[in-house]
TrEMBL record:
Catalyzed reaction equations: 3-phosphoshikimate + phosphoenolpyruvate = 5-O-(1-carboxyvinyl)-3-phosphoshikimate + phosphate
Pathway the protein takes part in: Metabolic intermediate biosynthesis; chorismate biosynthesis; chorismate from D-erythrose 4-phosphate and phosphoenolpyruvate: step 6/7
The name this protein goes by in its record: 3-phosphoshikimate 1-carboxyvinyltransferase
BP GO terms, sorted: amino acid biosynthetic process; aromatic amino acid family biosynthetic process; chorismate biosynthetic process
Residue positions binding phosphoenolpyruvate: 39, 111, 140, 187, 360, 402, 427
Gene this protein is translated from: aroA
Cell compartment(s), UniProt: Cytoplasm
Subunit-level organization: Monomer.
UniProt xrefs under InterPro entries: Enolpyruvate_Tfrase_dom (IPR001986), Enolpyruvate_Tfrase_sf (IPR036968), EPSP_synthase (IPR006264), EPSP_synthase_CS (IPR023193), RNA3'P_cycl/enolpyr_Trfase_a/b (IPR013792)
Length: 440
């Protein structure tokens, strides 16, 4: 697995004003929370709707930094996106023939914009276009996706550092037999699955390496079906994709609540005793992170999955030892819940935490230790022995929304917690902390 990132830029380079938020003495968490729309579904839905020939109304749209990056990029390409209300947008697709040809698209730190747009624009852009992002995005590898695009006939040129954005697409993707290494990110595979139906030739996409975060590939396939794209899957090894396909609009599309965000409320519902009802996602979810509920139950929580909501009623936590490769985002919440559990928790097979918003394995180990926990940081795992008593800690968040949100659970400890730069949660959940205040 190739997981090195480019040399680190200090997170203090982030221009956001560093504020702190102290949470202490939270004792209950009851009532109902409505989840915001899923980031993964929202950004796929925006792109797929833009690729349709007709109009699509996207309901329960997430409004956050990541979706804003996708929305602005599509507008720069000439797609009309009307905001009908706070959570509904109407996208007038252009069938992959973009009305405008921007020189450059800025995608912040949104992996779900950078990777799919790289592949889709390689398949559709009529002119060279440069894709760039913030300082952290410029440290997040994209070489395995670019290698696949080159094999498929595209010409892609790195603008600064080999293997990392910014990059310029100079010549279109043709299709054919393409290999892609999925051991660093499933997003490379999802991106190719969205792009290859658009080229004229058929493709055979062969997966190499030990593919990570598999459920996100299933999510992509499910949504492609909803938008009229046909892909033949050969188990977990390969896909056959006819060329010359057209995305067709489902007319309206409902974006499920964010299952990764549900993990913070599930944690709060356990520590605060519930009863808490989490609306927007449930048994019928197409998101892999719904699997968090099963592991939480193994940890001793009382949580029930209904068709479209989850109910949680407290529980006494015990440590678990689990391979959480399938749910890398929600997995972070177990690291902070581990501080409240009896016994040791091991979170395994999460090497790709190192190339996300920050090096999450190192950041989590560093911040967990501030609470008095004993933490072993392995190359792809964390082993956490909780402290006898959680100490108050000021938690650095490294411009990583999930660090801010999962450490908020320490507000349920006697000592409490101070979170630096809580506003970084705007990447996927801008009103998380106001919701936490309301519900606790
Ligand atoms: O496809 C997606 O929507 C995502 C896939 C996962 O990334 P990796 O495949 O890089 O693990 C996940 O961590 C990310 O938040 C969203
Ligand atoms: C890894 C994440 O984001 P991205 O889509 O930028 O990879 C995340 O949201 O946890």
């Amino acid at each position: 697995m190739k997981l090195s990132s480019a040399p680190c830029v200090s997170y203090w380079a982030n221009p956001r004003v560093a504020k702190t938020l102290t949470l202490k003495g939270l004792t209950s968490c009851r009532g109902t929370v409505d989840l915001p729309g899923s980031k993964s579904i929202a950004n796929r839905a925006l792109l797929m709707a833009a690729l349709c020939g007709g109009v699509t109304e996207l309901r329960h749209m997430l409004r956050s930094d990541d979706t804003q990056r996708m929305l602005e990029a599509l507008r720069a390409l000439g797609v009309t996106i009307e905001e009908l209300n706070a959570t509904t947008v109407r996208v007038t697709g252009c069938g992959g023939a973009w009305p405008l040809q921007p020189d450059e698209l800025y995608l912040g730190n949104a992996g779900t914009a950078m990777r799919p747009l790289t592949a889709v624009l390689a398949a559709t852009s009529a002119a060279p276009v440069c894709l760039t992002g913030d300082a952290r995005m410029q440290q997040r590898p994209i070489a395995d996706l670019v290698a696949a695009l080159l094999e498929g006939g595209a010409a892609v040129e790195y603008q600064k550092q080999q293997g990392f954005p910014p990059l310029q697409i100079n010549k279109p993707l043709q299709g054919g037999t393409i290999h892609v290494d999925g051991s660093a990110s499933s997003q490379y595979i999802s991106a190719l699955l969205m792009a290859l139906p658009l080229v004229s030739a058929p493709s055979h996409l062969i997966l190499t390496g030990e593919v990570v975060s598999w459920p996100y590939i299933e999510l992509t396939l499910a949504m492609l079906r909803d938008f009229g794209i046909k892909i033949e899957q050969h188990e977990r090894q390969a896909f056959t994709i006819s060329g010359g396909q057209r995305y067709s609009s489902p007319t309206t599309y409902w974006i499920e609540g964010d299952a990764s965000a549900a993990s913070y409320w599930l944690g709060a519902g356990v520590l605060g005793g519930g009863p808490l009802r989490i609306e927007g996602v449930g048994r019928k979810s197409i998101q892999g992170d719904i699997g968090f509920v099963d592991y939480l139950r193994k940890m001793g929580a009382s949580a029930t999955l209904h068709d479209e909501y989850i109910e949680v009623n407290g529980g006494e936590l015990i440590g678990i030892d689990a391979d959480l490769n399938a749910i890398p985002d929600a997995a972070m919440t177990f690291a902070t819940l581990a501080l409240f559990a009896k016994g040791r928790t091991a979170i395994r097979n999460v090497a790709n935490w190192r190339i996300k918003e920050t090096d999450r394995l190192h950041a989590m180990a560093t911040e967990l230790r501030k609470t008095g926990a004993r933490v072993e940081e392995g190359h792809d795992y964390l082993i956490i022995d909780p402290p006898a008593q959680i100490k108050h800690a000021q938690i650095a968040t490294y411009d990583d929304h999930r660090l801010a949100m999962c450490f908020s659970l320490l507000g349920f400890s006697e000592a409490g917690v101070t979170i630096e730069d809580p506003e970084c949660c705007a990447k996927t959940y801008p009103n998380y902390f106001s919701e936490l205040q309301r519900i606790t």
